[in-house]
Design a protein that fits this description.
This protein is of the alpha+beta class. It has helices at 34-47, 55-61, 70-85, and strands spanning 104-110, 123-129, 132-134. The protein has 2 domains: 1-90, no CATH class; 91-135, no CATH class. Strand 2 and strand 3 (132-134) form a beta hairpin. Helix 1 (34-47) packs parallel to helix 3 (70-85).
Length: 135
């Protein structure tokens, strides 16, 4: 994916987004090519199946696929900088004990209408299988 979007030689980063980042639909910034933005989002969504930490950020910037602007593209590229840093990361599942019971837990959170323009909520969740995050 990084090669496809000419981001393989980019600098890596430790975070997915800048602290306090606010992205809005109705801004005066220049529009960009929606097809290019949609290709990036599609590739990032595919990565969300194996890189669970991307889910929230990719879901958030996916809201802007209809009319993407330059700040939305920069946020998507910031996620790709993070992907560059975490290429070797993975999830390790512990060995299941002999008993047949598997512990499953789920956690969720929402900001209830946090977007002041279209009253959409931002929701996050994680499911745990034997103390290991999974989708």
């Amino acid at each position: 994916m990084l090669k496809k979007f000419n981001m393989f030689k980019c600098n890596s980063t430790v975070t997915l987004a800048k602290t306090g980042l606010v992205l809005e639909k109705k801004r005066i910034e220049e529009f960009m090519n929606p097809t290019y933005f949609k290709k990036i989002i599609g590739s990032l969504r595919y990565l969300c199946n194996t890189m669970l930490d991307l889910g929230f950020s990719v879901g958030f910037i996916s809201r802007f696929m209809e009319a993407p602007r330059v700040p939305h593209l920069l946020a998507a590229k910031k996620i790709m900088h993070y992907v560059k840093r975490t290429l070797d990361y993975g999830i390790l599942f512990p060995k299941v004990s002999d008993n047949l019971e598997v512990e499953m837990l789920g956690y969720s959170n929402s900001d209830w209408c946090g977007d002041k323009f279209d009253s959409k909520s931002v929701v996050g969740y994680v499911f745990m299988c034997e103390r290991t995050p999974t989708s």
